[in-house]
Design a protein that fits this description.
Two copies of one chain form a homodimer. By secondary structure, the first copy, chain A, is an all-alpha fold. The first copy, chain A, has a single domain, classed as Substrate Binding Domain Of Dnak, Chain:A, Domain 2 (Up-down Bundle), CATH 1.20.1270. Helices cover 71% and strands 2% of the residues of chain A. In chain A, strands 1-2 form a two-stranded antiparallel ribbon. In chain A, a hairpin with a 2-residue loop joins strand 1 and strand 2. The first copy, chain A, is rod-shaped. Chains A, B: Keywords: Coiled coil, Membrane, Transmembrane, Transmembrane helix. Chains A, B: This is Growth arrest-specific 7a. Chains A, B: It comes from Neogobius melanostomus (round goby). Chains A, B: InterPro entries: AH/BAR_dom_sf, F_BAR_dom, FCH_dom, GAS7_F-BAR.
């Protein structure tokens, strides 16, 4: 398990809680201003996600160095080239899986076309092997010829077997891999993370509101402290009241900041786990396709080998073709008479 | 060179020439009768060809023993099963060659059909190899997939090469073997021998006529010799005259016998040479077809081997499919941002 995130210990930034008790109101105000300025110097919000400014903050190590892991490269949203809405990083990963599913289906389609070609070829070979052409050839030559014609039927069988295995061992698995629910499952990641992003946005709005409220309170306190032309005791009361309210506003800001950061943290963790699952999916997809394309080449090799064997019996019978034997055979059947004529004599 | 024929030295048959001078007319007549009777006992005419009677005459050795040579088995005419005209032995041999020519043409036809099947198969494979299916697959998997598609085009090339070679090295030679003049050349044998058979028939008719004439003369002489009731001197004259005429008729018979035997001898020799040429033709035909069917199987073997090689590059690229590499490639191109979010802090 990897360390999910490292809190940037931004040096010099001390959270209000620590300092409020110890400083005079004037210093408090100045510090508060400084914090806000610092805040907008060292971080950057993009679509309500907070990133460190380039160069600012500590060096970030990749979560899985040298691994090109999805979990390290899809934190930002992708600018839509059409300048339309931005696409969240997770969406890019999901699109990749959806495209993968389509490609896998197209490969199955390709194999299906090959199957049809093989079936057609086998059909034609088998048909020709039954043709009566030169069926009357006799003797050893006739036997060789008959075997040659038969060998076409054997070839047809080989190609038919090839197409059947292509169907059951390549096309079908490619079609079956990642069934109907696959797209729904992917959408789940999408929705879940989109939902967290919405929460993040509202929490961010909360922070902004609280920050604004604090600023107002602080101005009000400042004004009050510099009013000298009012009755002293009444004046004291006002200042106390204003100070209480501004402290209150500071605490509110702290609270909404925590809400925001908690939500961002949830989103972060969800991003890491989801992207790593999508990464695993892609590895599975590639290995699955690799395995089944290997099965295709194995079947092709088998086919060539079986094809070889269909010719061998023809070769053997061609070798034992013997014109002498064939003549004997034919003469035995067709001879008209072996008694030679003799001279006629008185 | 084989001894073409062996004159049957039929024991006890002595030709007229030898005996006429030495015997009295009475004995002459008796001998003549005996000869004719003997003649019809020890030989047998079939369609004007003279064969020894089964069992009669000397044992005949085959011209080419243990060779089943055409020249030994087609002396008689073949009875037409439809009971129509007889078919001469030579005709049976010629029919065999004509049938061979047809079979050879049918084999070429069969090969042509095979060529068409291969062309169709190659066309379909090549077409499919150019299909855009799953063309968007990326990285090492994309390369393997692209090579797999390309391999179909290579296969198509292999089958196209096969069909081209089938055309030039098997179909064409089978069609070209024994060109247009072949049937004419065969007819020549036919006509030549048929012509000799016609001559044989007319010569045989001549023999019959001469034999009849001799018989008449002999009867006439016999009658004359037993007439006693006529004047002696006139009687002597008649007998002399009759004897001259019968001797004359005997010589005519001898001459027509010689003509007949000479013609039969010509026919015999023509039969032997022709049948042996036809036998050579059949050996050539069988060996020619054997050679070209062997060429067919050789091309088939080549095709299977070349086919094997089309799959190998696919296998190699499939082995180097690497999900990690593909992820790096894709992430480099599609990453949205590697800077991780940080806590928002006052």
């Amino acid at each position: 398990t990897i360390l999910l995130r490292r809190r940037p210990s931004t040096p010099g930034v001390i959270t209000l809680h620590n300092i409020v008790p110890f400083f005079s109101q004037g210093l408090q105000l100045i510090l508060l201003m400084l914090f806000e300025i610092y805040l907008f110097l060292c971080v950057l919000q993009v679509n309500c996600v907070t990133f460190p400014l380039p160069g600012e903050g500590p060096e970030q190590q990749l979560l899985k160095p040298n691994d090109w892991s999805y979990c390290d490269y899809f934190w930002a949203d992708k600018k839509d080239p059409q300048g339309g809405a931005c696409i969240p990083g997770i969406e890019v990963l999901i699109q990749k899986q959806l495209k993968g599913k389509t490609l896998q289906k197209e490969m199955a389609e390709f194999i299906h076309e090959r199957i049809k070609i093989e079936e057609e070829y086998a059909k034609n070979l088998s048909k020709l092997s039954f043709s009566p052409l030169a069926a009357q050839e006799e003797g050893t030559l006739g036997e060789a010829w008959t075997q040659l014609k038969k060998s076409l039927h054997d070839e047809a069988e080989v190609h038919l077997k090839f197409s059947n295995k292509l169907h059951s061992e390549v096309e079908k698995p490619l079609l079956a891999f990642r069934g109907e629910h696959f797209k729904k499952d992917l959408k789940k990641y999408d929705h879940h993370i989109a939902d967290l992003r919405k929460q993040l946005a509202s929490k961010y709005a909360g922070v902004e509101k609280a920050r604004k409220a604090l600023a107002d309170r602080q101005k009000d306190l400042e004004v009050k402290t510099h009013q000298l032309d009012v009755k002293a005791h009444k004046h004291e009361e006002d200042i106390k009241k204003a100070r209480r309210k501004s402290t209150q506003a500071g605490d509110d800001l702290m609270r909404s900041l925590d809400f925001y950061n908690q939500t961002q943290c949830k989103w972060f963790e969800e991003m890491v786990t989801s992207s790593m699952e999508l990464e695993k999916m892609e590895v599975e997809r590639i290995e699955f396709i690799q395995t089944h394309l290997r099965q295709y080449t194995t079947l092709r090799h088998e086919t060539d080998m079986f094809n070889q064997s269909t010719v061998e019996p023809v070769d053997q019978l061609l070798q034992s073709v013997d014109p002498g034997k064939d003549r004997e055979l034919w003469v035995r059947e067709n001879k008209t008479g072996e008694v030679r004529p003799v001279d006629l004599d008185i």
